[in-house]
Amino acid sequence: MTPRDPPDLPADTAMDRATERPPRRGGGWLLALGALILLTTGLAYGAQGYYSRNRETAAVAEQARDFVPKVRGAAVRPSGDIVHVSLPATTTAYDVATIFARASGYIEKREADIGDKVKKGQLLAKIAVPELDDQILQAQATLGQLKAALRQAQANLDLAKVTWQRDNPLVIQGWITKQQGTIDVQTLKAQEAAVGVAQANVNAQQDQLRVLNQQQAYQQVVAPFDGIITQRNIDIGSLVQADTTNSTFLFTIMQGDVIRAQVFVPQDLAVGVTPGVKATVQVPEIPGRTFPGTVTRIADALAPGTRTLLTEIDIPNPDGALTPGTYCTVELQIPRKTPSFSVPADALIFNADGLQVAVVEDGVAHIRKISVARDLGTEVEVRDGVKQGDLVILNPPVELAEGSKVQISPAAAGIP
């Protein structure tokens, strides 16, 4: 073996070296070229997609920028001269009287009961007071005695006058002493005083008899006005007292041909409420019928706790359909004192800046702040911020801003 010859190797080592021989150069370049083509194709496709999306985005942005949305609108109109407001109320009787006993005794007759319609002066009950009749008879007899004493004193006075008229010339001529003349004068004065006393006694007795007769008249309990008996507290045989502290309650009578209704008008409407304002009353239990009335009395001062004005309404009730104590609804027709405008509730914008509306002028939306006077549900009455003829946007879009271009739908706005 020469030095140039490699040493002998095992057979498996020779096979491994034969396996680890590098591949041919031509196959590697083809693989690299294919990968490059694929990468280039992918980049081109991605660039084309990116460019296409950018163009679409720009087109959408341009379309959104140039888009003018169609919105519904409504014209602002002035509110009417009359404010119709409905308020709860309770009916009361026009007049209510609680009748007490003015004479002490027993109920002899009872001519009325609960629910009876009575006329003014009609007998309701009669009180039996036997001792009062005896007092009247005694007072009449005493009056007769006093009148007789008056006549006697008058006769004595006439005699004294005649005596003085006869003795006066004789005293002057000296035929009768001056002392006798003085006696005649003083007797005349005494008789005049006696007549005065007798006349005063007669007058006093007549007054006493008048009081007793009045008490006797109180035995007849009569209705003070036309009405309906709503309460009764006596029966035949009941003992009644007429003293000032424990007088017995007999009847309660209410006048029903005219009914009153009391309502409390809020402060924002109270300015226009005056006597003569028309009203309409409705009762839930009487559907389909209204009762016209008129404001007749107002308190002229607001209640400090509720800021409301007490108002009374008189309602004719000739057929008695309305009864006192009934819950009802009163619609007042109050003349408007301050001008306002009606705006649909759909046009309101609620945000941090308060209540606003969007008004369209020459196709451009302008946001205006408003102040609401009354909320009527589907509409609101506005004091300021808009004027008659303004076109407000209904259900304004959330993205609507000051200066946005809009297009009003003619049909919605009522524009020909």
Task: Give a concise summary.
The chain is α+β, with helices and mostly antiparallel strands. Helix content is 34%, strand content 33%.
Question: How would you characterize the overall build of this protein?
Answer:
- The protein is 34% helix and 33% strand.
- It has 416 residues and is α+β, with helices and mostly antiparallel strands.
- Among the domains are: 84 residues, Beta Barrel (conserved putative lor/sdh protein from methanococcus maripaludis s2 fold), CATH 2.40.420; 89 residues, Helix Hairpins, CATH 1.10.287; 82 residues, Efflux pump adaptor protein, beta barrel domain (Elongation Factor Tu (Ef-tu), domain 3).
- The strands form five sheets. Strands 1, 18, 19, 20, 23 and 24 form a six-stranded mixed sheet that branches.
- Strand 13 and strand 14 form a beta hairpin.
- Helix 3 runs antiparallel to helix 4.
- The protein is rod-shaped and about 195 Å long.
- The N terminus and C terminus are likely disordered.
- It comes from Mesorhizobium calcicola.
- InterPro entries: Beta-barrel_RND_2 (IPR058792), MdtA-like_BSH (IPR058625), RND_pump_MFP (IPR006143), YknX-like_C (IPR058637).
- Keywords: Coiled coil, Membrane, Transmembrane, Transmembrane helix.
